[in-house]
């Protein structure tokens, strides 16, 4: 792997992937929205270039990428191995059931394939979601039936299937990932992990459900490692679930966070009611991914959380 493109690079997975690739001397083209407030976190360097291009402008990406490659003085004959499409609009709250918005995301994903083809990319890796499955009491893999229950999950499923066909039409290898719960630096503030950390650090009551859900959490650096290995060894046409492959009650994860942040922090178990479509069991079957790529985890939840809390405190100190 010599050069890659990443859309949606400012989240937990994208930022971790940039760092993982930089460490291996792989050139990264990070595609960001022009109005993104998070793009300041991407540090351009000899191996990292940033291109401004919104999802709605995806068909313009090839020309913008070529211009940046020339500006950086990078070899124009060097191929782009992998196109990582992580970008997606409407991932939280009511926007998940904004059907028109979610439908546009499918179109944007197809446009991303077309852009990848024009840039001569060899492989397209898309970021799907556990939401494609709906509720299922068992380990998730490509053989498990999919029954998405919201517009977000429906659109992700559709995007995965349609981009596979489009890649075949364009002669590009295709891999779809269904990502479970990832945490780490640069994670969104509305996630369970980041909201718990924020409340505990600021001495506020950390309200949550009873915490009985059996959950699978994956540290962002391990998710980045998975993405890198899939780009190197993933099998064309396959769908891989990305998770740790292990589960614990959500309450145990919250207790680990409290022990790291503040053992005396107040937690409000049961303050929040379960939603009507609450998923109570979530675990990835990563055996096929491990068999195909040689993946193994580098981080336990405890170690990953220590790194995440350290990063969060560092950002707070910068603001102060």
Q: What topology does this entry show?
A:
Elements: E1 3-7, H1 12-22, E2 27-32, E3 48-52, H2 61-72, E4 82-85, H3 99-118, E5 123-129, E6 139-140, H4 151-170, E7 173-179, E8 181-183, H5 192-201, E9 206-208, E10 214-215, E11 217-219, H6 220-233, E12 239-242, E13 248-249, H7 250-261, E14 267-269, E15 283-284, H8 287-293, H9 301-319
Parallel strand pairs: 1-2, 1-4, 2-3, 4-5, 5-7, 6-15, 7-12, 8-11, 9-14
Antiparallel strand pairs: 10-13
Would you mind describing this structure in some detail?
With 320 residues, the chain is of the alpha/beta class. The chain folds into two domains: 3-183 and 217-245 and 284-300, NAD(P)-binding Rossmann-like Domain (Rossmann fold); 192-214 and 247-280 and 303-319, UDP-galactose 4-epimerase, domain 1. 39% of the residues lie in helices and 18% in strands. It contains nine helices and 15 strands. It has helices at 12-22, 61-72, 99-118, 151-170, 192-201, 220-233, 250-261, 287-293, 301-319, and strands spanning 3-7, 27-32, 48-52, 82-85, 123-129, 139-140, 173-179, 181-183, 206-208, 214-215, 217-219, 239-242, 248-249, 267-269, 283-284. The strands form five sheets. It has a seven-stranded parallel β-sheet with strand order 3-2-1-4-5-7-12, sandwiched between helices. Strands 6-15 form a two-stranded parallel sheet. Strand 1 (3-7), helix 1 and strand 2 form a beta-alpha-beta unit. The N and C termini lie far apart (40 Å).
């Amino acid at each position: 792997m010599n050069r890659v493109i990443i859309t949606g690079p400012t989240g937990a997975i994208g930022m971790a992937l940039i760092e993982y690739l930089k460490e291996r001397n792989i050139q990264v083209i990070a595609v960001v929205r022009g109005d993104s407030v998070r793009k300041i976190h991407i540090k351009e360097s000899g191996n990292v270039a940033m291109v401004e291009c919104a999802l709605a402008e995806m068909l313009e990406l090839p020309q913008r990428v070529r211009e940046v490659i020339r500006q950086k003085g990078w070899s124009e004959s060097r191929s782009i191995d992998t196109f990582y499409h992580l970008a997606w609009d409407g991932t939280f709250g009511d926007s998940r059931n904004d059907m028109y918005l979610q439908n546009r995301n499918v179109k944007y994903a197809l446009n991303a394939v077309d852009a990848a083809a024009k840039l001569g990319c060899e492989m397209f890796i898309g970021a799907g979601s556990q939401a494609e499955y709906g509720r299922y009491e068992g380990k998730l893999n490509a053989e498990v039936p999919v029954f998405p229950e919201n517009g977000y999950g429906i659109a992700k499923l559709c995007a995965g299937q349609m981009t596979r066909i489009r890649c075949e039409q364009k002669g590009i290898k295709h891999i779809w990932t269904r990502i479970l719960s990832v945490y780490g630096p640069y994670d969104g503030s509305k996630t369970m992990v980041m909201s718990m950390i924020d409340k505990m650090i600021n001495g506020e009551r950390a309200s949550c459900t009873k915490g009985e859900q059996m959950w699978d959490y994956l540290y962002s650096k391990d998710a980045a490692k998975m993405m890198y290995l899939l780009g190197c060894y993933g099998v064309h046409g396959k769908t891989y679930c990305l998770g740790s492959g292990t589960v614990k009650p959500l309450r145990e994860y919250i207790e680990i966070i409290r022990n790291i942040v503040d053992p005396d922090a107040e937690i409000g178990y049961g303050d929040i009611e379960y939603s009507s479509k609450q998923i109570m069991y979530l675990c990835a079957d990563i055996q096929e991914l491990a068999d195909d790529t040689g993946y193994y985890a580098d981080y336990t939840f405890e170690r990953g959380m220590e790194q995440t809390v350290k990063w969060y405190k560092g950002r707070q100190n910068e603001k102060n």
